[in-house]
Amino acid sequence: MDMDKFNSAVDAFNATTHGSSDYYQDDVFIMLNEKNYAPLTFLKKKVEGFEADFLIETGFIYDSFELVGQDNFQDWYEKQFSRKLKRSQAKKILFLHLPDNKKIFDAIETVNKCYETLRDQRILFNGKKLPVQLGEWYAKCIFGLMQEKSTSQRGFDFTLGDKRVEVKVQWGDATSPKGVKLRKSLVDLSDYVIIIYMAKNFMIREVCFLDSTYVSRKFASKGHTVFLKDSEINSYFFSRSAKHKDKVVNSNALMKYSLPNFAMKLTENFEK
Q1: How far apart are CA 36 and CA 76, in angstroms?
Q2: Higher-confidence residue: 151 or 18?
Q3: pLDDT tens-digit map of 22-39
Q4: Does residue 143 or residue 49 have the better pLDDT?
Q5: Residue 164 structural domain
Q6: 168 and 61: one domain?
Q7: What spatial distance separates the first Cα and last Cα of the chain, rounded to whole Å?
Q8: How remote is the C-alpha of 72 from its chain's centroid?
Q9: What's the rounded Cα separation, in Å, for the pair 227 and 163?
């Protein structure tokens, strides 16, 4: 696909208003910046060979309007379509946008240095909230997941096409001997389980992609909890297996945010 034609089409859409069109009903909008958006259906009509999958492969990710908010988008929407953005419509809207990876990488390095200082000074003992959200973001980038407001629980659900995905982030340079802790109810509700193992420096040290039916069948639960030990699932680790290579839509993101040793193993296994 010609990216110049893509950018020109977005500019063309923003050059005029579209109050008489039905583009206001779109659920997915391409976001080039906080002032320029275009409906997915418009770009499919105007740009030959355009598919959302191409953008994901080049680094674009999905974010829901409910998750990130966008005051500028609401103003843009009402100006473009001469109508208010209804709450019912806002709940369904997804953005496809390109993150600034250099700024993100620089921020990760800075945060890691700050965390090290706070840990060394015995100030910070548990800072998992940031690692969990960052690990979930990694999963979105690597696998092209959509993240939408949950209808079954507080928070957000991840989906891959029409499949529900449970994303689990394990932060630390080693996994607990008990294994990765999962809620059985969430495994039962999902089709896939993705585990992002993130080192203390916030880089990816391992990835594991599992079918939820395999997890439910193979691992007994203790009450409402399932524990996945490294020794029991390591044959599915990306460092050892390319079985789920086809699920990776943005290999650049996977390599960019991985530890050097892990990246080397990915190169060996994913190029076979």
Answers
A1: 8
A2: 18
A3: 999 999 999 988 889 999
A4: 143
A5: 101-270
A6: no
A7: 27
A8: 22
A9: 23
